[in-house]
């Protein structure tokens, strides 16, 4: 893992944007794995800005989102479909048909996992996977204990994850208990991984990522083995260590 420390969230987002923009420039048909959560919003804002200035184009780009809550329709403000549309897709020149997000409303969720995995594999996997970090070390919604060999699957969300994400809902009871997530094996097959970490709430997880061993009880630790993983972290996180 290569670690790049930025002074603050804006600078971190700027660095992430530079890395992505350069690669989109080199490969207009790039396949991006995208994440939700508050951390990548700054990156998305910068990419939108460059797209509006016509410095980069998403017309030929394909995206695969990592995860979606089970039971939330795409119209629900807390669904990741809604999040991606509001925070990114509707502001850029991407072809909607090239954006992929698991369907958490599928009647047969197991079949949906197989379908989604096939779509990723048919495309040949991700060129770059953008990740955020859960306070418990989850990536996507791969919670502690998830096998490193998993592909797209259904996961029961930990109480701590539901608590952390309750800030987006009226109360914790409204936070779904399950999600569909791309698995760790698929994340690891991405040619490059960009992990974004910001804020003091991530300090403990960051410390464990950098100084701890590789273990399924801390899913992000597997990234230590990835051949091309860049960790972008801001000083609000590193300051705490
Ligand atoms: C959610 C998402 C993850 C994200 C994590 C951290 O659980 N499924 O993909 O990385 O939250 O979110 P935040 O960036 O808001 O801290």
From TrEMBL:
Active site: 67 (proton acceptor), 136 (for ring-opening step), 138 (proton acceptor), 143 (for ring-opening step)
Catalytic reaction(s) noted: alpha-D-glucosamine 6-phosphate + H2O = beta-D-fructose 6-phosphate + NH4(+)
Domain Glucosamine/galactosamine-6-phosphate isomerase: start-end pairs: 13-228
Pathway(s) this gene product operates in, as recorded in its UniProt entry: Amino-sugar metabolism; N-acetylneuraminate degradation; D-fructose 6-phosphate from N-acetylneuraminate: step 5/5
Enzyme Commission number(s): 3.5.99.6
Alphabetically ordered keywords of this record: Carbohydrate metabolism, Hydrolase
Keyword Lipid biosynthesis: no
Keyword Hydrolase: yes
Main EC class the enzyme belongs to: hydrolase
GO MF annotations, alphabetized: glucosamine-6-phosphate deaminase activity
Pfam families: Glucosamine_iso
Family: Belongs to the glucosamine/galactosamine-6-phosphate isomerase family. NagB subfamily.
PANTHER family tied to this protein: GLUCOSAMINE-6-PHOSPHATE ISOMERASE (PTHR11280)
Function noted in UniProt: Catalyzes the reversible isomerization-deamination of glucosamine 6-phosphate (GlcN6P) to form fructose 6-phosphate (Fru6P) and ammonium ion.
Record protein name field: Glucosamine-6-phosphate deaminase
Gene: nagB
